[in-house]
């Protein structure tokens, strides 16, 4: 697999997002299957594994700690703080320095490692100045517990403020053909400071591979049930976009998932997609996307077909949109 730069690290151009093994999309795989998949991902050439304290409220980190830490020198490990399960057992966004320090210690213990390579502030707690939260994370770097820092779901302005406090190596936000907000400012802001842009949900949360025909079949616990784009009001119109998209994939001689990832890789060389899956065949398929070359004509057709004007519905519900700091159209 081709390589890309992630802060001080050299990683596979496509990383592996571990969230779906424990969180977000209904019941995940059993533990043995999840462990086997993580090893298959490393064997397939993925050298970037992405997790967070939030995923499964720590279960995802514990899974990695059990499964692959004996292969620690084969991959770059990224995790996130700032969203976690509090003592009351509920999800909380909290960027206070003492909380971030404790979250890091808890993550290191669960991950069974001494150092996290890249540590993201998962959400900016708007009650705490970004400089204060990033300053605390900088202390973790100086203490050797973390090697580099990142931010998630932030605007270009917030990124610039944070980078003035401590070097930021990456921004992780949602980016795909159907979520284009990073193109407003953050992609360029990352390039300006030499940071990578790590694209989560690069397959549009399972939409672009073309296998989700009816969102009503999703598990009750699946987070997509709360997303307007997957609602009965909007999904039929979005689904109609896939007829031409499928035609383009056939002409490019790749799968629909590979087309989405190849489009991202071709947009800029500082973009690193991190698709997640619990299916080994899909993981292999995704890993081969770096071999797909798209013509300028194909790039233009895709951009005109699926974009902020043609996709119906917001990417998050109103409550979740209030939690993020990203620019909007």
UniProtKB/TrEMBL annotation:
Name under which the protein is recorded: Aldo/keto reductase
Coiled coil: none
Gene Ontology cellular component terms for the protein in this record: cytoplasm
Keyword Hydrolase appears in the UniProt entry: no
Domain NADP-dependent oxidoreductase per the UniProt entry, residue ranges: 13-305
Keywords recorded for this protein, A-Z: Oxidoreductase
Organism of derivation: Marinobacterium aestuarii
Pfam families: Aldo_ket_red (PF00248)
Any one GO molecular-function label of the UniProt entry: oxidoreductase activity
Family annotation (InterPro entries): AKR, Aldo-Keto_reductase, NAD(P)_OxRdtase_dom_sf, NADP_OxRdtase_dom
């Amino acid at each position: 697999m081709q390589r890309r730069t992630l802060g001080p690290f050299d990683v596979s151009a496509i990383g592996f997002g571990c969230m779906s093994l424990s969180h977000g999309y209904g019941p995940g795989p059993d533990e043995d299957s999840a462990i086997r998949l993580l090893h298959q991902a490393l064997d397939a050439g993925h050298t970037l594994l992405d997790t967070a304290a939030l995923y499964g409220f720590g279960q995802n980190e514990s899974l990695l700690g059990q499964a692959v830490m004996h292969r620690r020198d084969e991959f770059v490990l990224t995790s996130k703080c700032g969203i976690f399960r509090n003592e009351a057992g509920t999800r909380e966004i909290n960027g206070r320095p003492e909380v971030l320090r404790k979250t890091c210690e808890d993550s290191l213990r669960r991950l069974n490692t001494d150092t996290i390579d890249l540590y993201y502030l998962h959400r900016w707690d708007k009650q705490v100045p970004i400089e204060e939260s990033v300053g605390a994370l900088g202390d973790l770097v100086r203490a050797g517990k973390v090697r580099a820092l990142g931010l998630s779901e932030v605007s270009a302005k917030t990124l610039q403020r944070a980078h003035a406090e401590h070097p930021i190596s990456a921004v992780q936000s949602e980016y795909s053909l159907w979520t284009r907000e990073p193109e407003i400012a953050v992609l360029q802001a990352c390039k300006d400071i030499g940071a990578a842009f790590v694209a989560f949900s690069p397959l549009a949360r399972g939409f672009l591979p073309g296998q989700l025909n009816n969102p009503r079949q999703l598990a009750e616990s699946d987070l997509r049930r709360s997303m307007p784009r997957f609602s009965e009001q909007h999904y039929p119109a979005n689904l109609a976009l896939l007829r031409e998209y499928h035609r383009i994939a056939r002409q490019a001689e790749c799968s629909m998932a590979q087309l989405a990832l190849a489009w991202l890789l071709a947009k800029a060389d500082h973009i690193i997609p991190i698709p997640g899956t619990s299916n080994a065949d899909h993981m292999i398929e995704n890993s081969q996307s770096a071999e797909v070359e798209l013509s300028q004509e194909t790039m233009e057709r895709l951009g005109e077909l699926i974009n902020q004007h043609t996709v119906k519905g917001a990417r998050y519900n109103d409550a979740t949109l209030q939690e993020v700091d990203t620019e909007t159209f």
